[in-house]
């Protein structure tokens, strides 16, 4: 099936659309992740880093970064004929966090991207989704040259609950990112089933 059209003789399928956020610290790879899987040309709101922003934009560890997301990234991926994900990448710097409440409205779940070289940069995103009970998966973006740590060590450093999935990923690789997104959907469905079970029991 071509998106929005049906095969000859078959009624059109109205897909279920789900909203997933991609969050994390400055320079962790959110824009790259959305671009790696989006089947449409991603909408990006990037601006050049300037000298004026140098005191507040910590580029240590990502010195080659020259742009930053100031509103959001947007992409779309069709997982199945009847299931479409809309991806919203959040801005990483603290001065743009006011946008997170708008972007998280109606979200099924989230990916929190983490960089082991700057792990503390994703604390705010983990805290945000925990406080709002939005299901999330932590994706450790495996940058070239960065140290590899055991999953348990990263989990302890982030103080994650045992039921929060943590996976290694490469934000540049389409198949790797798709696995993370499928993980978010599955985790969100599991959490929803638990909540329903708790209400009815």
Description:
With 201 residues, the chain is an alpha/beta fold. It is 28% helix and 26% strand. It is built from 5 helices and 7 strands, in the order βαβββαβαβαβα. It has helices at residues 30-37, 100-104, 123-131, 151-158, 174-200; strands at 16-24, 43-48, 67-80, 83-89, 109-114, 136-141, 166-169. Strands 2-3-4-1-5-6-7 form a 7-stranded mixed beta sheet, with helices on both faces. α4 (151-158) links the parallel β6 (136-141) and β7. It is globular and about 55 Å long. It starts with 15 loop residues before the first strand and ends with a helix.
Shape from CA axes?
Answer: globular
Major sheet attributes: 7 strands, mixed
* Spatial arrangement of strands, main beta sheet: 2-3-4-1-5-6-7
Helical element count? 5
Number of strands: 7
Oligomer: single chain
Distance between termini?
A: 42 Å
The gyration radius over C-alpha positions equals 18 Å
Average pLDDT confidence is: 82
Which helices and strands occur, and which strands form pairs?
Elements: E1 16-24, H1 30-37, E2 43-48, E3 67-80, E4 83-89, H2 100-104, E5 109-114, H3 123-131, E6 136-141, H4 151-158, E7 166-169, H5 174-200
Parallel strand pairs: 1-4, 1-5, 5-6, 6-7
Antiparallel strand pairs: 2-3, 3-4
Highlighted features:
201 residues; alpha/beta; seven-stranded mixed beta sheet; 7 strands; 28% helix; disordered N terminus
Entry summary:
By secondary structure, this protein is α/β, with parallel strands linked by helices. It has helices at 30-37, 100-104, 123-131, 151-158, 174-200, and strands at residues 16-24, 43-48, 67-80, 83-89, 109-114, 136-141, 166-169. Helix content is 28%, strand content 26%.
């Amino acid at each position: 099936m071509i998106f929005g059209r049906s095969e000859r003789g078959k009624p059109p399928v109205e897909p279920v659309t789900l909203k997933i956020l991609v969050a994390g610290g400055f320079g962790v790879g959110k824009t790259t992740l959305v671009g790696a899987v989006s089947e449409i040309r991603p909408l990006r709101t990037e601006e050049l880093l300037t000298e004026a922003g140098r005191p507040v934009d910590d580029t240590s560890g990502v010195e080659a970064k020259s742009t930053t997301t100031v509103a959001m990234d947007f992409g779309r991926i069709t997982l199945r004929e009847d299931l479409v994900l809309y991806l919203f990448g959040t801005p990483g710097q603290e001065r743009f966090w006011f946008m997170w409440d708008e972007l998280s409205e109606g979200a099924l779940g989230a990916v929190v991207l983490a960089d082991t070289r700057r792990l503390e940069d994703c604390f705010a995103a983990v805290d945000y989704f925990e406080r709002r009970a939005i299901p999330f998966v932590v994706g450790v973006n495996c940058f070239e040259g960065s140290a590899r740590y055991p999953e348990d060590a990263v989990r302890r450093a982030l103080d994650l609950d045992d039921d929060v999935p943590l996976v290694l990923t490469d934000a540049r690789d389409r198949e790797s990112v798709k696995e993370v997104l499928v993980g978010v959907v599955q985790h969100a469905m599991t959490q929803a089933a638990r909540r329903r079970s708790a209400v009815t029991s």
